[in-house]
Amino acid sequence: MEEIAGSAASIFYGTTDAGSEVAIEKREQAMLELADFDEVVRVYRPRILRFLLSSLTDRDAAEALTQECFLKAWSARHQFRGDSSLSTWLTRIAVNLMRDHLRSRSLRFWQKTRGSSLDVMDISDWIPDGRSSPESVAVARDRVAGVWRAVNDLSAHQRSVFVLRFVEEMELEEIATTIGMNLSTVKSHLYRALAAIRERLGETK
Amino acid sequence: MKFRKDAAANPELDSSRDDIRDLAEDLSLYRSAMHHLAESEAARRPFVAEARPAHSFHLRLLLAPALAAAVAAGVFVPVYSHFHHRHPAVATASQAAPDPTEARASIDDSALMNQIDSDLSENVPDALQPLADLSDQATTKNSVSENKNATHE
Prior knowledge:
The structure holds 2 protein chains of 2 kinds.
Chain A: H1 2-13, H2 18-35, H3 37-56, H4 59-75, H5 86-107, H6 120-124, H7 134-152, H8 156-166, H9 172-179, H10 183-204
Helix pairs in contact in A: 3-4, 3-5, 4-5, 5-9, 7-10, 8-10, 9-10
Chain B: H1 2-9, H2 11-44, H3 48-51, H4 56-86, H5 88-94, H6 100-121, H7 129-152
């Protein structure tokens, strides 16, 4: 019975080699994972919120889009085929929501003042352990604030690629799949983003 | 090995490496700060589904189509009733056989209306014309006084 199911799956996915079996296993695992949606929300919400918070620098917008992301995921859960990981799929939904949000926000250009926007003090408020002296803490805060300002000056595409790579620590291929860009375009955005950040940090030092 | 010697001999390469190391450390600090910030933000604001009783998240998603159906009903029922009243012949044709008493009553009513209509449109005989003029004047006066009373009130 299991053999029949396995062969049916291989016919459905069109492959029969060992690598494809692993892929099928991953797909099935992702489908099982998606079945318990409360757990999906619990596990992936911090990541989606972090990506949106880093990209938008607005608490309320990040939270609203995170909730919308999971609502969309719930509505479209039957369309998920497991071709990518659940994390990639959710991040892709978040990226699309963010694009729509930025597009609508650019139309509402008069709403410049945002009460829930993150400040540079919010981001540099936290410094990791191991820096006992006040001088080292101050230096670390300055460095984080510098990166923060430099990231805020990036274009939307560059910022998305940068955040996915250096905050979410995704692979470049995964970023390309998530954002829907060519790998070379992702590399180009990342190169320019890093060059801009490096230049900006060099100015401040 | 040769590369190491060249690198050690090249101060520009060293400074570039230092820059890259500094940049990597800056990015690491930034990542840690963002992770911490997002965690604290997530803890500060619980997800809507978590803040509500169990299955409320699913219930909310199920209520959305119900709400849409209610809104659709709210739109289509007035539209339907509007067209229903505008085309009574179509509506009566689609209905079941009418009640005989209602039919009789409607016939009687129409007969009565026809009778009243014919009575009102009947010419006044010449002999009664002065009375008719008097009644017209009285009616006009009454209506004028009523209007005055209304304005005074």
